[in-house]
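Q: Structure tokens for this one, please.
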Amino acid sequence: MTQFRPSRFEILPVIVKNLLIINGLFFMAKFAFRGPDALINIEDTFALHAWQSTLFRPWQLITHMFMHGDLGHIFGNMLALWMFGSVLENVWGSKRFLTFYIVCGLGAALIHLLFLSYEFLPMMKDYQLLYQMQQGGQPASIADLGRFIAKYFPGTPTALEHLQGIENNAQMSGLIFEKITERYQEILNTATIGASGAVFGILAAFVYLFPNTYIYIYFLFPIKAKWLGILYFSYELFFAVQNSAGDNVARWAHVGGALVGLLIVITWNRGNKKQFY
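A: Here is the predicted structure, written as tokens:
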């Protein structure tokens, strides 16, 4: 088991403390700037959006790490950040820990965006065909529109079986295409938030450096870090591959953050198998 003996162990080191504060401020700002009269839409501005979305901005690769959905979301991430991040910051120092945290978050975001692009590609291609038909003066048939809806918007009330009895006409085709466009834009503009990618990187580094350290689940059940890490990573990878409908968790961001964190810590620790330094 890797040993660490920093000159002074801090329960709440400076970077972890400031990350907790910044996340808390962003969380409160989400409630302060809400409603139609808000000066700024926090989610549209700072949450991570797909490259194909009109809402994407480069700074979102960083700012999305400081946003969370609800109290349970932020509590879970911040607890893990404090539990595991405090140890790593004490071992590495503040500068190296901050670099690690940001790179893990960036890596997780980029991997998430790559998989989003892969998932969006067939839908975007088929939508473009429908769009060209609508703009070319020969509207898509009701059946074509219904098949698109059934394929990409499963569970939508206007799926193929509900459209089969509708007679083809330009006006009806145009109305259905408008609804398709609205839903299409909603999907492209779906936001991703949370520090989970960076936190999974921290967890991966902790597991690599301290594999035999006992972690107490719910403060009661002890399990070695290496087994917890393997189980948790396998769980996330399984559901990422499954890509289950209705799962609004960015699984590939979790997997990506863990992989980036593991690669970094292996590289940094390459010349020393017993201690990090």
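A few notes: The two ends are 15 Å apart (CA to CA). The CA atoms of residues 79 and 218 lie 12 Å apart.
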